[in-house]
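W.,

You were right to be curious about this one. When I first looked at the sequence I had no strong expectations either way, so I just let the prediction run and decided to look at it fresh. Below is the sequence, 314 residues in total, followed by the output.
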Amino acid sequence: MELRFPVAPMKATLGSLPAADDDRWAYEIKWDGHRTLVHVDGEQVRVQSGGGKDVTHRWPEVVAIADHVNAGEAILDGEVVVLGDDGLPSFDLVQRRHGPGTPDADQQTAGHLMFHAFDVVSVDGTVTTGLPYVDRRRLLASLVEPGPHWSVPEHRVGGGAELVRATAELGLEGVIAKRLDSTYRVGARSKDWLKIKHRRTVELPIGGFTTGTGNRATTFGALLVGQRDDATSELRFAGGVGTGFDQRILTELTSQLRDLMTEHCPFDPEPPRAISRSATWVEPALMARIEIAEFTNDGHVRHASFVELVDGSV
C-alpha cells in the first residue's frame, strides 16, 4: 500500500477512561490545537489539515522540520498548537492563522507555534500503520529530532487517572488514551483511541433564542446567553448553546421563554447581525447551567452544552 497526499488521519472516539487494563493503554496530552499531518520528502515539506487540505502556508514555521527528520521521506501525524504568554495552548491564537494567505507578522508573533508529533504513518516509502502503537512511538522518537517549532511529547503507560487530574489542574484540554497494541487505521474513528475532554460548568443568564428548523421548527435552535460585566452589570453576549436538549426540555423551555419575550435586546452591545436577525429576545430572568470547554478571548462560550435551568424548573 502506498500513501499519498492527503492522508485521512485515524480519529479518536469521545469517551471516558478505560474501565480496566489501565496498564494496556498509553496516555497522551490533548493539546487543543489543529490536527495536522506533515509530509516530508527530502527538503520538501507539505503540511496537511485533518480534513485533507494543504495548509503549508498557514504553518510556515513547520517547514524547517525537514532537516530534523532522520529519513528521506516520512508522514507524521500530530497537532499544531499555539502557546500563549502563560505557556498554555490557546485555541484562539490557532484560529488567527485561518485564511487564504501566509500569516502576517502580527499573527506569526502572537504566541509560539509548535507541531506536536504523536504518530508516524510512513517512513521511506514503507507504510507503518500495521505496527502496534508502542512500536510506532519508538520509531517516531528515533525519527524526529526536537526543534524550535516541533517535538515528540512524552506519553505514559498506565496511570490514566493521574494524568487526567494533572491536565485538569493545568487547564489543558484533556487526555487521549490509546491501546498499546492498536494499529493505525487510516481514516477510521476507533475505540482503540479514546478522547477524554475536560469540561467546566458555568451558570449564565438567557437573553434570547434563535429560530429552530427541522425537528425544532416549533421550539428553538439555540439559547443565547450572556455574562454580566463586573463593572457595569451590563449583559454581554456570550454566544449560543444549541446542544444538550431532549424533546421534553425543548418543549417546556420554549413555553417558559415565550412568557418572557420582549422587543428589547438585553445584550449590550447587541450581538452581530447574523445572529440578531434570527433571534427572539427574552427578559434575562432564567439562568442556564451549561458545560463548556472554555471561554474564548472575546468572552464567548466554546463547545457549550445545556445541562439544566439553575432553578430546576425544567
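Here's what jumped out at me. The first strand starts at residue 11 and ends at 14. And, maybe more interesting for your project: The chain has a mean pLDDT of 91.

Coffee later to discuss?

I.
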